[in-house]
Amino acid sequence: MAAFVVTLIVLLGIATAIWFTWRCRSRKQLLPCPAAISWLVELENPLARVTRSASILRQLDPGAGDCIADIGCGPGRVTIPLAHAVGPDGEIMAIDVQTEMLTRIGEKAKQQRLSNIHLLLCDARDQHLPDESLDGAVMVMALGEVPEARRLFPVIHAALKEHGRLLIGESMFDPHYVSKEKIVEMAQAAGFIERSHAGNFFAYVTVFEKHTYQTKNLRFPVTRLA
C-alpha cells in the first residue's frame, strides 16, 4: 500500500509539472494538444459538464442552415455535433493548425455521412474567413493555446454577421485555462457584448454577440444560466 501511495504521488507530481510547463510555454509559442493524445480531448469530464458537446449546442443554439466556425477544433468533439445541428444546408468551418486533427474529423464525417464540414488548416489569428460570413463561432478549451490571443477577437468579430454569436468554453483541467475576466476584457475590446454565462469553479461557457451598431446608453442584460 505504501508503495502504491508513493507511486501515485510521483505520478501526480509529474502530471502537475507537465501541466505548468505546458501552460508557461504556450504563452510564448503555439502549442496545441498533440494529435497523439487527442483521445483526452474527447473525454466528457463529469466535473466540467458545461463544456460537454450537448451543453455547447444548447447554449449556442445553432439553427438549420447556419455557418459556424469551430476554431481550434481538434479531433472534432464539438465539430461533429455542430454539423448534425446545422443540417445539410448549413456549414461548419473546422479550423486547426494540425493536419492530423483535421484528418480525424474528415474520417468521422465520412463515417457519419456528413458533407457539410469544411476543413481549414490555418492559424485563426490571420484573416481567412470573409467578413460577415459566419452565424456563429466556438472556441472550446482552445483559446489559451494561442499566443497573442487578443488578435483573435477582431478577426472573429469581422467574420461574424451582425448579431452573430461567439461561444468560448474553458476548463480548469486544461493547462491552457483562461479566466473569464480576461476573456470578457478581450472580447469587449473587440466590440462583443456578453450575452450569457454558465458554469462553476471547474469550467464555464460564455456567449458573446456581435453588435456593430450600438446606442451609447443601451445596456444588454447578461443571462446567467444554471
Question: Can you tag this structure with a few keywords?
Answer:
eight-stranded mixed β-sheet, 8 strands, alpha/beta, 226 residues
Count of DSSP E strands? 8
Main sheet, how many strands, which sense, barrel? 8 strands, mixed
- Rg, rounded, reads 18 Å
Low-confidence stretches: 10-23, 215-219
Number of helices: 7
Name the helicity range. 25-40%
Kindly state the mean pLDDT as a whole number?
Answer: 83
Strand and helix order? HHHEHEHEEHEHEEE
Shape: globular
* Class by SSE composition: alpha/beta
Q: Which percent band covers the strand fraction?
A: 15-25%
Distance linking N and C termini: 42 Å
Strand order of the biggest β-sheet: 3-2-1-4-5-7-6-8
Description:
It is a single chain. This protein is an alpha/beta fold and 226 residues long. Helices cover 34% and strands 23% of the residues. It has 7 helices and 8 strands. Helix 6 links the parallel strand 4 and strand 5. The longest helix has 25 residues.
Short characterization:
With 226 residues, the protein is of the alpha/beta class. The protein has 7 helices and 8 strands, in the order αααβαβαββαβαβββ. The protein has helices spanning 2-26, 38-41, 53-60, 79-86, 99-111, 152-159, 180-189; strands at residues 67-71, 91-96, 117-121, 134-140, 160-171, 192-199, 203-210, 223-224.
